[in-house]
Specification:
single chain; alpha+beta; Alpha-Beta Plaits; 4 helices; globular
């Protein structure tokens, strides 16, 4: 099963506010922007025109890969509130 098929089995309940916060000033200085490559759900996008990271938090799989990949430790990551976030379905 490929990643797109697996992602289709994931159920999300979006929170109104992001559980992911980035330090945009650190992101501007970052050369590699590993968060934009490591995230399997494409949560992080570098917007060249605005010179900032766009965070599509509603796609987050809560895997934590971004926390490990960010060498500047410029990402604040928490689990979503209450019943928000991701629910995995198997089968």
């Amino acid at each position: 099963m490929n990643i797109d098929d697996r992602l289709a089995k994931v159920k999300y309940v979006n929170d109104e506010e992001s559980h992911l916060k980035v330090n945009q000033e650190d992101c501007k200085k970052c050369k590699l922007k590993m968060c934009t490559y490591i995230c399997p759900a494409n949560v992080y996008e570098w917007n060249e025109n605005e010179n900032k990271i766009i965070v599509n938090y509603e796609n987050c799989l809560e895997c934590g890969a971004c926390r490990i990949a960010c060498s500047a430790k410029s990402l604040e990551w928490q689990y979503p509130k209450g019943t928000s976030g991701v629910t995995y379905k198997y089968g």
